[in-house]
Amino acid sequence: MENKACFIWCLCIFTYMTLFPAVDMFDLKVDAGLKRHNGKHKLFVFGDSYVDTGNWPKSMSTSWKEPYGLTYPGSPSGRFSDGLVLTDFIASFLGIRSPLPYTKKGSDRKSSVKAGVNFAYGGTGVFNTFVNQPNMTTQINYFQQLIIQEEEVYTKEEMSSSIALVSVAGNDYATFLTKNGNNMKDLGDLTKSIISQLELNLRRIHGLGVSKVGITAMEPIGCLPRMTAVSSYENCSDSATSLSRFHNEILQQTIEKLNNQTGKPVFVILDLYSAFMSALNIQQSHPGNSSNFENPLKPCCMGTSSEYSCGDKRGTTKKYVVCRNPQLSFFWDIIHPSQQGWFAVFSALKPSLRSLL
What we know:
Signal peptide: 1-25
Family: Belongs to the 'GDSL' lipolytic enzyme family.
Largest sheet: 6 strands, parallel
GO biological process, one term: lipid catabolic process
Radius of gyration: 19 Å
Strand content: 5-15%
CATH architecture: 3-Layer(aba) Sandwich
InterPro entries: GDSL, SGNH_hydro_sf
CATH class: Alpha Beta
CATH superfamily: SGNH hydrolase
Protein name: GDSL esterase/lipase At5g03610-like isoform X1
């Protein structure tokens, strides 16, 4: 149960190339106006499978199994997609290489973490979830150890232009609902608890010297393929997505408060909700879609039956199927966007990303 797909199933009650040209892997074009920043920024990443680029042990995660990594790099890389994920696109936007996963940093620490470090683990949350991997607090502990308790890796000047990316919360809701039999009675209190702890975590990241912090709003969970399967991948579930909207409302209020207290726009919301809806071309008042992706609510990779998921095998027999062209699918599996899907989301996020510079 190592990624969002292992959890979001329990949210059942609330829970082509013309428009989006193919992505040229790591040779992504950086805006001309940003080239002067090349190498200047450091990117530190915290959170879950939407930003994890390979921290899970290879023997324990589907992200290290075929057909993950099919588009890039051609074999599993630990990313929960067929190729690049949100972290990679944001790093390219900053003019740097995608930061190395924390578990992959070499003995030459300063050299290997030059662009920053990715501390994110798929399936984790603000609090503990069902996966035995570091929650956000522990991820920040690793960050603190790297920059303070060990030999100095980054200078104060380098930290002054550093940026953090945070993607977290979905797995917290899924864990709560699993433990409570999908009882939604206390979800409002849970949201406040999640946001309260997240606020402490964000303050801590900034207090460790990070100049700007980008926090993802929750994606429209009612549009995830696990939720749209019941409608043959035709319609989003507005009742499921209402949780996302409520979470994002409380998050917005908290970020405004933090920025008022710091006296400057340190914290920036990256609106995944609107970016997903824009990429899928779905209007909130109308559940149907007219996206440029082929059947955008249907995943490219899925199990051959409801008991199997993308990457599953029984012995040597594959228990999953993959679409002919992942570039025409917004979703890679039942939870995660494809590389082309993430590129569409990234394109929608660009205006807010400039606020991180």
